[in-house]
Amino acid sequence: MIVAISPGKAILLGEHGVVYGKPCLSVAISLKAAVNVEDSNEYLVNNLPLDEKKHSYIKKAIDIVGIEKPVSLATFSQIPSASGLGSSAAITTACVASLLAMKDEYDREEVARKSFEVEYEVQKGASPNDTSVCTYGGGILTWEKEMPGYIWSMEKNGRKWFIYPVEAHDIKLVIGHTGIKSKTPLLIKKVRKFVEHSSFGKELIDEMEILVIEGKEALEKNDLVKLGQIMNDNHKILHTMGASSKEIEKLRNAAIKAGAYGAKLTGAGGGGSIIAIADNVEKVAEAIEKKKGKVYIVSIAKEGVKIWK
Known about the structure:
The protein has about 300 residues and is an alpha+beta fold. The chain contains nine helices and 13 strands. It has helices at about 55-65, 85-100, 110-125, 130-135, 185-195, 200-220, 225-240, 245-255, 280-290; strands at about 1-15, 25-40, 45, 50, 70-75, 140-145, 150-155, 160-165, 170-175, 260-265, 275, 295-300, 305-309. The strands form two sheets. Strands 1, 2, 3, 4, 5, 6, 7, 8 and 13 form a nine-stranded mixed sheet that branches. Strands 10-11-9-12 form a four-stranded antiparallel sheet. Strand 10 (about 260-265) and strand 11 form a beta hairpin. About 50% of the residues are buried. The mean pLDDT is about 95.
């Protein structure tokens, strides 16, 4: 029996831009997912026969890792699905890690590569951001620009991304989940239409790039006030692009009124979650709860995916 545990993730800055090779700043969070794998007489997921549609990420992980004998997998997740918090990336990363360990081929970079392949195939397109931060832990910057010091690089269909480590201090994030599932492929398509058919859309993507780099510096300096201002500016861009919703705005406004330095949607948008940073996280959490948001107060997970045999 092998168990793999992976953190979830929160995108602090730069979602949607990463699809176009722009930088994206993310952190691993203390909400986790786990996968337990063992030999079996048939392919099972949580004691039920593997269903290719229902268990699409797991089925693809089995294929990409190259598991040829039946296995039984059990999954557990603290991360709400379709919330913008990396539920699929965490399960995928934990699944790939446990399957590689079963073959005695566990290697952290290989986990990141194969997990990206799984997400790319299932979602019909993705960046390596989510699976990389779940694999590596802490903070990362995903960017098409090559500079010294990257952890690893990934290439797909002529596009290349470099993953850089980012120092993330011990800060708390307040997550407000709207309870509405974010439809990532539809939101990506909606934003793509705006960006590709509008010069204004291209300008906004370029503006977001500047914010991400400034935000990285603020995070590394632990300047929460500056980071919060940048998060607010990033949210305005995402709102203009059509990635927000009335539910997101309601939770975000509650967080700001309660004293958050910054609050924005995280992930694809359209539903899902907001993240907020503040000194008084309990006050912000209470304000979000009053607006019917499901609240999680999380810390940054310093470690990425881990294996137990």
